[in-house]
Amino acid sequence: MPRTRPELDRVEKQTAILEAAIQQLETGGYGALSVAAIARDLGLAQNAVYWYFPTKDHLFVAALEQMGHRVFAAKMRAGGDWTARLLVVVDALADLYPLLPAIHDRAAASDVVRRFERDLLNQFRSMLAGGLAGRVRADEADLAADTVLAAVIGAYATDLSRARRRQLLRNLLDKLAAPET
User: Alpha-carbon distance 123 to 147, whole Å?
Assistant: First the structure.
């Protein structure tokens, strides 16, 4: 019978569960995410995991949010100009790209994943639009943000190397910010 691990407080248990979920997602994608395996590996009852995360989708989203926080923390440490910070984020998000199909699939059946997917895209678009402000015409900022977003997703989908992806994005950003002739 699994232990209840009362020696760990709530935050420590949540953190351990999230770290285990992140490891599963990073090594095997959504298909590898298993509440039963997490509970077993941590010496918890499955119900303990569900106490903190009511469904597998809640755990999935919490793990993705934690992974996202790490990505944006890397951006903040990057310093430099906006383009350099964007490239750091894009490099870090490359690890999350394989999870996008699962996010999209689960969003069709799960409100919590649907909200996460919508919010993630809106936050990324907002970050792009904010960074492009002053670089592109104001009336084209949203279009430019969507253009960069599509280029990022396309660079991931075509499995471009990090160097080639950075070259492509720098080229695109230079073209978007170039004065009209």
Answer: 15
CA 139, CA 122: separation in Å to the nearest integer? Answer: 18
pTM for this entry:
0.83
Residues 6+ apart with CB under 8 A from 117: 103, 104, 107
**E-assigned strands of 3-86?**
none
Neighbours of 173 (CB within 10 A): 22
Per-residue pLDDT at 90 exceeds 90: no
pLDDT tens per residue, range 115-126: 999 998 898 888
CB 132 within 8 A of CB 144: yes
93: buried, middle or exposed (CB in 10 Å: 19+, 13-18, 0-12)?
buried
